[in-house]
Amino acid sequence: MNGNSRKTAAADMLLVLAFGAIMYLPWLNLPVTDADTAYYTGAARGVVNSGDWMTIRGSGGGLLDKPPLSIWPIALSYRLWGESDWSTRLWQVGLSIGILVLTYLSGRRFFAREQCLLATLILGTSLLFAYCTMVVQQDILNLFTYALFFYAFALFWQTHSAAAYYLAWLALSLSFMNRWHIALVIPAGVVLACVIAVRMLGRDDFRIATLFGSWRSALWRTSFGLAIFAVVGGTWYIYEYLHLGRPFLDLFFGRRNLAFLQAPGGRPLSWLSVTYLPQLLLATVPWVVFLPDAVATGIDGLRSARRARRTREVDGLLFSSLWCLVAFFVPHVSAWRVIRYLLPVLPPLSMLTAVSVTRKLQEGKRFAVSAALGAVITAVFVAIDAYLLFESLDATMRPYRGLVLPFLLMSTVAFAAFTVAALWRRERLAIVSMVILAVASYSTLFASVSYKWDQVSPWRSFGLATRSVLQPDTQLAWYRTSGMLPYGVPGEAERVVYEHYAGRSVPFLGDPSELRDLVAQGPAFIVMRDETLLGLLETCPGIDLKKIQTHSTGWVLVLANSEARSR
């Protein structure tokens, strides 16, 4: 690489980093809105409080059925900067920016810089990627390890570098430490697909002599790679087995953790439950308008690999297409259709989309299909906007109107502007407007969540109010309601978010006798429905129940104490 190339690469890196920083860093302090995030933060808090960084436990004290790699960064952040929304999210936003960088670097092994820069813009403004960046779970860390592995794989494919080979093994070991053996399926599947495809084309790219020079060199390098995997990826598992024994094996390798492979039980055999296509359409907003072009480019790449002479671009299209296919179909073995499982599809799909867009721009072709899809999607968004603006929503949904409507209106403008520019034969303007308005729409959404979430949900304000006056002898509890709420347990999803902000485990209470037993031990803050409080005031004489905070959703935070102690 000459001096000009290095300067160009450095400038591109700064552009990618600047884009990621502008897109995500201003919103680090968003409230925790997701029960899974609160679940992870509770485990991280336990790590910091106990000092045990090896045996990870949930907020209730039970063993966590997940490897620790997604917990450790949160715990380290808490240890360095204390508990806050921004310290919860900082490491994950950093990983997301790292994924953008790795996507660019992987693409540059095959494609032109303009295509790779556009791919990072497409990936960073895709709905699923933006959502997962802001919701702290295992998924972004998992995608980072995949992006690192596939960058190392592409580098090794082209240069046969020992360092790239060992980097691939390191990335696999990190994947294993994040989601154990489940995380190895997609990397192994893509590598196998590439080897089979190249061999079918009659090429010798993946022969031992080509990659390693000799069988002896291959044996030594693979042995060292396995050693890296064993040390980095396996040490914690061995330690926990020696420390916990059979319960650890039952937790991580028993039937419960293999349930995701079970056939969907009791679910109707419909198009929505059989395929991930509807989720893919939603995941790629706003770039869903180019999905047909991206698919056509992938198919063309597979055909080109068979009939055209080998070039870096042909290899890149083959690699991206196979990565996309494997990552899309692997989640179909799951018992559930969870949109987050499609996250590994987005980097290669973004690259295919970028290649298709830049080709059309270079060849002066119209965005005819994309413009038609943009018009259809604009009409759908206009209908949704009108419904939210003019329809009378029930009490549970009304608070969400102010939360999502600004984002939907801005997205409508984005699709409409793209459609008009594309029909007007201003294709470059259409792309620029899509990027700018997509960033604006996400900024609108994040701002709405930041400023309006407490109107939708009481759990942050309840939790912070509790923590501000919490004494060592004060207890916390959640009084069960009669209605079944999300996740099959009354109040479970809400309770863990309240627990996150209160900073302490919050057990359930089931009936008035349990409330009397709790209050007999000392004062307690209790979350319950307002109508439940009215009933308890009549059925629990001798207990002083005082409202501390009331929310418009019908939930109240109550200070419970015995009347004798209150006097």
Characterization of the model:
By secondary structure, the protein is mainly α. Helix 22 (492-502) links the parallel strand 1 and strand 2 (508-509). It has a 5-stranded mixed sheet with strand order 2-1-3-5-4. It is globular and about 85 Å long. It starts with a helix and ends with a helix. Helix content is 67%, strand content 5%. It has helices at residues 3-24, 35-50, 72-81, 85-108, 113-124, 127-134, 139-159, 162-179, 185-200, 208-211, 215-244, 246-253, 271-274, 277-283, 291-307, 312-329, 346-363, 368-390, 398-423, 427-456, 459-469, 492-502, 512-521, 530-539, 563-566; strands at residues 475-479, 508-509, 524-529, 543-550, 555-562. The model is unreliable at 262-271 (pLDDT under 50).
